[in-house]
Design brief:
275 residues; alpha/beta; 2-enoyl-CoA Hydratase, Chain A, domain 1; Lyase 2-enoyl-coa Hydratase, Chain  A, domain 2; three-stranded mixed sheet; 12 helices; 9 strands; ClpP/crotonase-like_dom_sf; Enoyl-CoA hydratase/isomerase family protein; Enoyl-CoA_Hydratase/Isomerase; Enoyl-CoA_hydra_C
């Protein structure tokens, strides 16, 4: 995969893993229009490639993402031409960015440290796997600013349930890493100095799994609730058959019979990881 040139993102490709570092540390990695455009373009490229199988999203300078860039958003609203609604257009684009992230065929890891408010919390809830440090601070502060968490709300509800989402959104409560883990925002909790090691541990677990099978499994999981029950069995069976009759399924089953690692995980065993 050819990486695009970005100013607000730092990209590192290591074999089939892409590390995305949101790189506006002075603004606690708040999402401005340029970052949103660069990230959306990158996510669209990821949808179209199978060269990458794991994506790790992290923030520079000890913070994950402080949410939307409020100063820029205010300036956009004040400069609006009569008859146009750039605020609505900007917000809708953000919604599609979050949906694109959620629906990536790659497995995604969000590594949350420091601040993760608004859109930062949205990223954490869109990722497949979220790691949070104990000292992280998270929340949905939108109502205290006179606006709504319009685009992240669906993902927060899916992640923590409607009752908890109501509490977090309507009180604008801030919560820490341990609470994020207990609420279900994050599946992994680590010490403040343990993020690097935890990322590698989770990444090793992910790369033990077959990439096409992981993508299909993710598609099935995300379809729950959106496909009628009467259609779900056929939908899942089609995905299962394509995998079982395809190269990954044949290799995985042959490796099981031959009592060896499958081709996609052999390097893990050779290096002593993932056992």
């Amino acid at each position: 995969m050819k990486l695009p040139d970005c100013e607000t993102l730092k990209l590192t490709l290591r074999n089939t893993r892409l590390d995305i570092l949101m790189n506006r540390p002075e603004q606690r990695n708040a999402i401005n229009a340029q970052m949103a455009a660069e990230l959306t373009d990158l996510l669209n490229r990821l949808h179209a490639t199978r060269d990458v199988r794991l994506v790790v999203l992290r923030g520079a300078g000890g913070n994950f993402c402080a949410g939307g860039d409020i100063k820029e958003r205010k300036a956009v609203a004040e400069a609006a031409v009569p008859g146009t609604d750039p605020v609505k257009e900007r917000n809708e684009r953000a919604g599609w960015m979050f949906r694109t992230l959620q629906n990536l065929p790659q497995t995604t890891i969000a590594a949350v440290e420091g601040s993760a408010f608004g859109g930062g919390l949205g990223f954490a809830c869109c990722a497949d796997l979220t790691i949070v440090t104990e000292s992280a601070r998270m929340g949905m502060p939108e109502v205290t600013l006179g606006i709504a968490p319009a685009q992240i709300a669906p993902f927060v509800v899916k992640r923590v349930g409607l009752s908890r989402a109501r509490q977090l959104a309507l009180t604008a409560s801030r919560f820490g890493g341990r609470e994020a883990y207990e609420f279900g925002v994050a599946q992994y909790l680590c010490a403040d100095n343990g993020m690097d090691a935890k990322i590698e541990e989770v990444a090793a677990q992910v790369t033990r799994c077959a990439p096409m099978a992981s993508a299909a499994t993710k598609e099935i999981l995300l379809a729950v609730g959106s496909i009628p029950d009467a259609e779900m069995a056929a939908f899942a069976a089609e995905r299962f058959s394509a995998l079982a009759n395809g190269p990954e399924g044949r290799e995985g089953q042959l490796a099981f019979v031959e009592k060896r690692p499958p081709a996609w995980a052999a390097h893990l065993t050779q290096s002593g990881r993932g056992q």
